[in-house]
Amino acid sequence: MASQNGIGAAVKRKEDARFITGMGRYTDDLGAHGQTYAMFARSPHARAKIVNIDTAAAAATDGVVAVFTGADLKADGIGDLPCGWLVKSKDGSDMIQPPHPPIAVDAVNYVGEPFALVIGETLAAAKNGAEALSVDFEELPAVVDLASAARTAQIHETVPNNQCYDWELGDKAATDAAFEKAHHVTRMDIVNNRLIPNAIEPRAALGEYDAAAGSHTLHTTSQNPHLERLVLAAFVNVAPEAKLRVISPDVGGGFGSKIFVYAEETAVIWAAGKTRRPVKWTAERSESFLADAHGRDHVTHAELALAEDGEFLGLRVQTIANMGAYLSTFASSVPTYLYGTLMAGQYKTPAIYVEVQSLFTNTAPVDAYRGAGRPEATFVVERLVETAAREIGMDATDLRRRNFIQPTDFPYETPVALTYDTGDYEASLDKALAHVHYAAFAQRRDASEAAGKKRGIGFSCYIEACGLAPSQVAISLGAGVGLFEVGEVRVDVTGSVTVVTGSHSHGQSHETTFAQIISEKLGVPFENVTVLHGDTGRSDYALGTYGSRSLAVGGSAIVKATDKIIAKGKKIAAYMLDANADDVEFEDGSFNVTDSNQSLTFAEVAFAAYVPAKYPLDELEPGLSEKAFYDPPNFTYPAGAHVCEVEVDPETGVVEVVQFVAVDDFGNIVNPMVVEGQVHGGLAQGIGQALLEHGVYDDTGQLLSGSYMDYTMPRADDLPSFTVDTTTTPCTHNPLGVKGCGEAGAIGSTAAVINAVTDALGVASIAMPATPETVWRTARGE
Amino acid sequence: MNVTLTVNGTEHTLDVPDNTLLVDVLRGQLGLTGTHVGCDTSQCGACVVHLNGDAVKSCTVLAGQADGAAVTTIEGIGSPDDLHPMQAAFRDNHALQCGFCTPGMIMSAIDLVQKSEGLDEQAVREGLEGNLCRCTGYHNIVKAVLAAQQNMAQGGN
Questions:
Q1: Would you call A713 exposed, middle or buried from its count of C-beta atoms within 10 A (0-12, 13-18, 19+)?
Q2: Do A18 and B134 touch (CB under 8 A)?
Q3: Which of A127-136, A543-552, B2-11 has the lowest mean pLDDT?
Q4: Which of the listed residues A301, A627, B7, B60 has the most CB atoms within 10 Å of its CB?
Q5: What architecture does CATH give domain B85-153?
Q6: How much is the mean pLDDT over chain B?
Q7: CATH homologous superfamily of domain B2-76?
Q8: Cβ–Cβ of A252/B90 closer than 8 Å?
Q9: pLDDT digits (tens, 9 = 90+) for A523-569
Q10: A369 and A255 in contact (C-beta within 8 Å)?
Q11: Could you tell me what percent of chain A has a pLDDT over 70?
C-alpha cells in the first residue's frame, strides 16, 4: 500500500538530493558552445526622451559581437510586451495600455529601463561596450508620488492623467445606504508599501538558435514557460510557437516575479537568432532591484460601517494602485480581480463597494508578488476590523466572531462576486488563540510593562482565492488566457511512472508531492515515480505556477489522468483474466476480479499494455499513457487565523516578534512537511513587509533601496520560530479536496504584525515598514 | 596571473586575469556550479565556500588571494550516498525549498557549528545572519543546524 509515501505523509523530498550536493541545474549553470554574453544598457533617468544613441564606439570595442537598440528590434518586427488582462473602467471603456517596447525606442520611463543591448565574447567585453555607448537624453520631470500622479505631468502620450483604468466593484447605492444607518464608522488611510520580490536566484536567460532546424531554444527563469513561449511567439513575434522551445530548469524562487515576460529574455532570444550565436544574460542583483516587477504599492482610504452591536453593515474602499511605468504581464488584474473581490474577507458584510484607480508613474512596473492583491485586501479589511474593535471597545476576536460567515452558510455568495465553497473560520481562530495562550496575554503585557517594554497582540483572519478559475468566467472578465492545467501520466513498460506537468516548481516540491499523488492513486512505489516539468518541449500547453494553483489545478489534472489510466487498466485486466471489465476493481495497486481470487498487479497490466498479446487492438489501443486537462469550476478559498505578539522597546523602537501563530485551513494536505515550509516562507515575507522591507524612490525617481544594504531583507535573526497548525474543511469541487498553501503566510501575516505593533504602542496606525525609527518616532507621538 | 588552488582535494593551476573572482574560477573554469551568485556584493551568502577551513564569500575574494589555498565547495563535502551531517540535516528538516541559497547556507552552517559549542536557537540565527533565504523563513534551517550540531558532535565531520 502506498500510504507510507502517499497523500498525507510527510515524505522527504526527491529534489533535495541534488540541491544539497550542489548538483542543481539553474539557468546560469548552463552554457552553450560558442556562447556570448549580453549586457543591457539601462536608463539612469526616471523619465527622458532618447534623442540619439551613438553605438559606433560600443560596436568598435574589443570583443563586442553586436550592439542593438530598441529601434533595431522594432525594425525587425519585434512587438511590444503585452498585458494579459483587459480591465474595464466604470464607464465601460477599456483600460489604456501604453506601448511597452522590450528595449526603449523613443523614451525611457523608469530608472533601469533597458535602452540597448551589447553582446560580447565575454561579459567584460559586453560591459565595456555598454560603457562606450554615447546617449543623448533629454530629461523630463518624473512622476513619482502615487497619490498625486493623476494631477501632474503626463507620462505616455496616449494616457491622460496617467490613468490606466478607474474600476469599481459592488453596489454603491446599497453601500451608501448601509453607511446612512451606521451606529459607528471606522475610517482609515492605509498605505501598502512597495516591495521588491528578491528571489535569491537572479533572473537569467540563455538563448540559442539552431539554424539547421530554424528553431529557437530559450532557457530561462520562468514560473510558466508556456506563457513565455505564447507571448514571445504570438505577440512579440520572435519565432512561431512550434519553432520556439522554452525551458525553465531549476529555478531559484519566484514569488510571482518570474511569471512575467520581461525585456531581457525577449531581447536575448531574439539576439541569438540575429547573431546566430548563443546569448546568455544573468542579472546582477542591482538589475533585479531596478527591473524585476515590484509588488503592492497602494494608497487607500477605507471605511467600515457598524451597527451598535458590532455587526458589519457596509465597507467602502477607494484605492490608488501603482502600475509603474508600463503594464507588466498581469499587472492590471492584481488590484482589481485579485483585490476587490476579497473585500468580504471572512465576514458577512452585506454591502461592499470598491473603487480602484490604477496610475502610471516613472517607477519599475508593479505586478503580482506573493499573494498578489489578496495581501493588500486582507491588510485593508483586517486593519479596519481591528481598529473598529478598539474604537467601539470590543475584544477584537469577539468582533470577528460576531461577523464570521458560519459553517452552515456555505456555499456563501459575497457581495463582491465570489462564492466561497466551504470553511470554518471560528475553528481556526479558536486553535490559534489556544496556541498563543490568549487568556494569559494580559499577564504577559504587565510583565513587559514592568520591564519598561510595551507588549501588543494583533490578529488577522484572512481569506484568499486560489487556483484562479474557471477559464470562461476569467476570460469574460478580461483574462487573455485560459486557466486550466495539464497533467500527463505515462506508465512505463516496467510499471514505473513518468508524470509530465504543466505546473512548475521553483521551490514548491512538485517532484515529491505529485509523486505522492501517483503513489497513492496507482499504488506505484514513490521511488518509481518521476515528475518532469518546466519544458514546452515535453508538456502540452499549460499555465504554469502562480496563485497557489499547482496542486489544486495541476494536481487535479494528474488525478484525472490517473482515473483514465485505471479505467484502461481495468479493461486490459479484464481481457487478461477473461472477466467482465465491470467486475474488475482497482485497489492498493492491483486489479482484482470481484468475488474471485483473480488479480493482476499494476506492473503486470502495464507490461501487458505494451506487449499486447491478449487483447483486441481494434477495440483497445496499446500503451498506458493518459493525459488530462483540468479547468476548475471555482476558485479555492484557503483561510486562516494569524496571531502576532510583539514586544516593543520604546527606547530604541525595536520590535521583537515574540510569538507568531498561524492556523490555516488548506483543505486536504498531501505533504504536511512541505505545507509547513510554504507557510514559514510566506510568514517571513509578510512580516518582512510589516517591519523591514520597502522599495523607495526619491522624488526624482532614483531607486534608493537598490541593494541589500538599503532594502532590508528578513534575515535569520530578524524572525522568530513560528507556530504553524491547520484545520481542515476539504475543498468541495476538486478531486483532491485541496485549496493551496503557497501564499497564505504572506497574505495573513502583515496585518497581524501591524495590529500587534499598534496595540503595543496604543496608536491608531503606523506606517509600514515599522522600522525602529518609525516606531521610536511614533512612540514619542511624532 | 597563475593561480594554484586545491579545490575539494584536487590541485589546479590556472591562468586567470588579475581581477578574476574566486567564484568565477569555481563556476566558470572548474564547472563547480553548486556555488551560486545571488548578489555580487557579499550580502546574500549564496557563494560561501571554505578557504583554508574558513567560510568566505567567494564573490568577494580574488582568485589571486586564494593562491596556494585549499578550497572546499558544496561538491566537496558529501555525495547523495554519503551526505555530510549538515546536508542530511537540511534534507531531514526540510530546510530548503528552491535550493538556490542552500549550498552557501550549508557551508556557512558547517563553519558555524565547527567553530562554536552549544549553539542555541538565537546563536544559530545570529550566526547565519550573513546568508539570505527567501523561501524558508529560516525556521527549518535553524532546526536543521541545531540537529546537525548534535550529529556532528557525535562523530560526524
A1: buried
A2: no
A3: A543-552
A4: B7
A5: Orthogonal Bundle (1.10)
A6: 96
A7: Beta-grasp domain (3.10.20.30)
A8: no
A9: 999 999 999 999 999 999 999 999 889 999 999 999 999 999 999 99
A10: yes
A11: 100
Site from B91, B100, B102 to mutate, A interface, most A CB atoms within 10 angstroms: B100
Q: Which residues contact A581 (CB under 8 A, 6 or more apart)?
A: A570, A571, A574
Pairing relationship of beta strands A134-139 and A48-54 according to DSSP bridges: antiparallel
Q: Write out pLDDT tens, residues A89-109.
A: 999 999 999 999 999 999 999
State the Cα–Cα distance between residues A588 and A522, nearest whole angstrom. 7
For A643, the grid coordinates are 496571531
How many A-B residue pairs are in contact by the CB < 8 A criterion? 179
Q: CA dihedral defined by A312, A316, A320, A326, rounded to 10 degrees? A: 80
User: End-to-end CA distance of chain B, in Å?
Assistant: 35
Q: What interface predicted TM-score (ipTM) does this complex get? A: 0.98
Q: Domain A31-140+201-252+258-291: what homologous superfamily? A: Aldehyde oxidase/xanthine dehydrogenase, a/b hammerhead (3.90.1170.50)
Reduced to 3 states (helix: H, G, I; strand: E, B; else coil), residue A680 is helix
**Contact assessment for residue A470 and residue A464, using Cβ atoms and an 8 Å cutoff:** no
| Angle of CA points A522, A525, A530, to nearest 5° | 90
Q: Do B135 and A285 touch (CB under 8 A)?
A: no
CA distance A738 to A7: 11
C-alpha cell at A459: 490578529
Within 8 A of B125 by CB-CB distance, chain A residues are: 716-717, 719
Q: Is A543 helix (H, G, I), strand (E, B) or coil?
A: coil
Give the list of residues 6+ apart from residue A543 with CB closer than 8 angstroms, or none.
A224, A226, A227, A481, A482, A483, A484, A485, A502, A549, A553
A642 in Cβ contact with A432 (< 8 Å): yes
Phi then psi for residue B18, to 5 deg, are -55, -30
Contact between B138 and A676 using a beta-carbon 8 Å cutoff: no
Residue A94 has what DSSP assignment? Answer: B
Total residues belonging to chain A: 782
C-alpha cell at position A453: 517594554
Q: Give the residues across from A50 on adjacent strands.
A: A137
Q: Regarding the domain delimited by A373-465+635-779, which CATH topology (the fold level of the hierarchy) does it fall under?
A: Aldehyde Oxidoreductase; domain 4 (3.30.365)
Summarize the confidence of residues A589-593 as an average pLDDT: 96
Does the beta-carbon distance from B83 to A28 stay under 8 Å?
A: no
Nine-digit cell at A629?
486537462
Name, in order, each residue with C-beta under 8 angstroms of A728's C-beta and a sequence gap of 6 or more: A665, A666, A667, A668, A669
This prediction's pTM: 0.98
- Which residues fall within 8 angstroms of residue A25, CB to CB, at 6 or more apart? A18, A249, A250, B33
List the domain boundaries for chain B: 2-76, 85-153
Nearest chain A residue (CA) to B128? A716
What element of type H or E holds B104? helix B102-114
Alpha carbon A617 to its chain centroid, in Å, reads 46
A residues 494-513 near B, CB within 8 Å?
506-509
CB contact under 8 A, A716 and B131: yes
**A622: cis peptide before it, omega within 30°?**
no
pLDDT at A246 over 60: yes
Contact B141, B105 (CB under 8 A): yes
Topology of the domain covering A3-23+484-630 = Aldehyde Oxidoreductase; domain 4 (3.30.365)
**Whether pLDDT at B157 is above 70:** no
DSSP string, A172-222: HHHHHHHHHT-SEEEEEEEEEEEE----SSPPEEEEEEETTTTEEEEEE--
CB-nearest to A252 from B79, B99, B121 is: B99
